[in-house]
Amino acid sequence: MSEKLRIIPLGGLGEVGKNMMCIEYGRDILVIDAGIMFPESDMLGVDYIIPDWGYLQDKKDRVHAIAITHGHEDHIGALPHFLEEFNVPVYATRLTQGLIEVKLKRNRPPAPVTLNTYAPGDVIPIGPFTIEPYHVCHSIPDGVGLGITTPAGLIVHSGDFKFDHTPVDGWPTDYAKLAEFSGRGVLVLLSDSTNAGQPGNTASEAVLNEAFHQVMRDAPGRVIVATFASLISRIQQVVDVAAQRGRKIAIAGRSMAENTKMARKLGYLDIPDETLIPLGEIDHLPPDKVVIMATGTQGEPTAVLSRLAIGEHRSLSIQEDDTVVFSSHTIPGNEELIHRVVNRLFQQGADVHYDPLSPVHVSGHASQEEQKLLLNILKPRFFVPIHGELRHLKQHGKNARQVGIPAENIAVVENGYELTFGDELEVGKRVPGGYVFVDGKRVGEIGPRIMREREILGRNGFLTVILCYDRDSGRPVSQPHIVTQGFVYEPQARELLDRASDVARSAAQVKPGTPPQAVEPAIEKALAKFLYQETRSRPVVIAKAIEHGV
Amino acid sequence: MSEKLRIIPLGGLGEVGKNMMCIEYGRDILVIDAGIMFPESDMLGVDYIIPDWGYLQDKKDRVHAIAITHGHEDHIGALPHFLEEFNVPVYATRLTQGLIEVKLKRNRPPAPVTLNTYAPGDVIPIGPFTIEPYHVCHSIPDGVGLGITTPAGLIVHSGDFKFDHTPVDGWPTDYAKLAEFSGRGVLVLLSDSTNAGQPGNTASEAVLNEAFHQVMRDAPGRVIVATFASLISRIQQVVDVAAQRGRKIAIAGRSMAENTKMARKLGYLDIPDETLIPLGEIDHLPPDKVVIMATGTQGEPTAVLSRLAIGEHRSLSIQEDDTVVFSSHTIPGNEELIHRVVNRLFQQGADVHYDPLSPVHVSGHASQEEQKLLLNILKPRFFVPIHGELRHLKQHGKNARQVGIPAENIAVVENGYELTFGDELEVGKRVPGGYVFVDGKRVGEIGPRIMREREILGRNGFLTVILCYDRDSGRPVSQPHIVTQGFVYEPQARELLDRASDVARSAAQVKPGTPPQAVEPAIEKALAKFLYQETRSRPVVIAKAIEHGV
Predict the structure, then answer these.
(1) Does residue B232 have a pLDDT over 80?
(2) Least CA distance to A467: which residue of chain B?
(3) Residue B57 to residues A258, B27, B60, B82, B127: CA-CA distances in angstroms?
(4) Residue ranges covered by each domain of chain B
């Protein structure tokens, strides 16, 4: 084991470090963040994806701690799974810890978890590392970046950040701390690449106040604002504008209600008691005195907004003169679902404001000029773009070259590549770094083979033919029974299925003594050919020839 | 049958008139366009969607003709299916007719088809209607809008259009004809809503020349430009810039090669012989003298670009220093597929220019100010926004109100609503207007039930248990056989499947004389419960209890 600094991004392919980052010096390891990714639309049946921490499996005694930058799902979502396997202390800020506790309550690891609170300004020695969290602006309060002093030099991990001079909580990113890091000399910067393709600077959250004022002023009736349950700052903004315009606020949806309660308790959300009303009481007020906060901006079928769109919410329904505001960005891949919900809300009679038609959302991530500002403040020797698909990382690499970081000091890599920092930056071999799918209780059991089966089943359905078979005579001794789903609508396809049955029966008439394992492939081949000829579709075809008593 | 004018948009829900428009006066019917829609990502196994023309089924003798506005798939793609059922003459411009002929060669209707060529300026009487095609700019040459004189008044159908003052073919939209229509008095305008949410004016295609010059100047090696095979104007632009910069052009992909050949033959594409080289010869030239035109901008797995991205194209592969340009917009729902291809092209070593990062594409559809210009020129009494999802139609309706069309004269409707134009605009009852899915040979057989089965199979897989059963004893007389796909990986799940087998066996021990149809649901229920407990997944569970000899 060489006494060199190594950084290994773990997690979803192409989403380097979005989910998990491993900092290693000699035998000592520090982990940063443990997030989930949402499945792409062709990852059928997958609930979510967690990082592949197989690399750490045989190094459990060497992992000192996990430090969390902020409380979004793509940074804390996999923590319950991680803590099941790694009983190490967790470091997080107060609000982030609150969000982690809500999560661990639902999904408790076997051993007790040590949750340590840290705050910007703290200096925390962990093994050979010293962590210094510093405040960053993002679309959730209490987010931090991390200075990590190692024997090899200082690493800065940007967290998810933007440079907002007028953030909702009045607490800008800590420039002084960044300058101080710079003064000490930064060996490596790991920085957020989400908006590497966006020219200029990301707009301040302050611009949304004007947008919300305008919407609430012009809306003839109720205003339903949808956003992520974890976008605590956005909830604060809506509350502030609603209060100024004399509207009351009700919260719809369990996760938003839980987060709101917790954030109020910890002092991160300031809602006067008289502004907040229970959802059940909104009908006692004139519609133009009501704002409802809800979830479902990504078109999630079980969230409040989707239920409203199809008129299936328990206690709420869309009224003529309702105005619905999607205050969120679109996670790529969700466009169709979101547009379907938008169309249906229009159908129900609401007016709908959504990105990019209305300026009702700003990003929480730095754009190109902010990324360059961070690079210019810190002047790191080495640069690793993190948090993004490969196309974002490539672009962030280009942005860094523009401010003078030499190409050989920039590592644009996908997950799992070992980066070693000595006199030079070396990109080493690749450790496991793929997808780990979570489906129900099963973690990592659903692999590429099952995904491929699901894809074919989903596209074409299946047809199973079953017959009792007598080995001695080489003849079927029952009618073929056909079971089929996802292929044809049986009542309409009687004739096709009868002919399929005949095909199976003929194919099952073989040489006396043939074992059933040899008959089945012959039946499958004959049936698949017949069905393709008739329909130009290729359902999964399975034959079972059953011997009596076996 | 009242002697009134009726307009009925047919086709995909929410995509009013994108696919097909029915103009009816008394007993006489004229159809405009017959396009396909591409399936959304949860429409598993669907190849494409055609309009539901069930309304016309019992009116075949009353349909006089079908008039086509331009040669894009969403306007001509369903024509072979339509002509199978309706043997009516087709009217189209020359290039559009060429594209239709290419299509009918692959998919020939049973009866001979009458293809009539029309051109801007023609005046064609068809039953009680008189059609006057007029030239419009769009992202394909030879597109038209239609003036349709009816006994009730003049309808203008905009086709897909933009107001481009410097189009590639030098032929702007025909303002004079529009002014003439206006002078005669326009009863109804049907107008393209695609970009109803885009403020301002759509940029001219001319701006792309500069972008292509820049890309071809800066690219150190080959430039691969991907676009739709039907974007003939874009191909022309790339050819022109390539010729000016001393690069040769090769065409990759069958559909683009076919369209290019046809468009050159008809004179819609001007490629000097010395500029075009066969794909096989590009290696004889220095890389910086080569441009390759290719398909695959939507991430279609079988198109050239996707094959290049995974290194599986027959004769081409990505080289270091290649530059790939996506000159296309993203069809909503394709984002993930496209980004995956972009990421993989980066992985292969190419530099990639894609929307919105680079200005290498402009829309072919009018933005808000152009839509208002059309409304202001024509001053229609009634307005029907067409060609878009409900959210686009609503926005187009808002745009029309801004230029003074009264709300009661605007019909924002989904497909299948009968619009009657008398003294007032009446929205009548709804005729069939849903999706008709095409899956292989099967048209319209794949309905909501099969789609639902496919969705569940795709998410969870299935497990079928089969056993021989003796009715007299009420006992299984064979081991249960399990067939499963998409649920567990069998070698890893041996123990789970053995226990499932035991569960099935126990459930199949029933009262003597019980018929198998009564045993099967009991087995299914017991198994489903067991599997959910063990995995928190719900595969489709099917039991078959087979009687010997039956």
Answers:
(1) yes
(2) B546
(3) 55, 14, 6, 11, 19
(4) 5-200+363-443, 207-353, 461-546
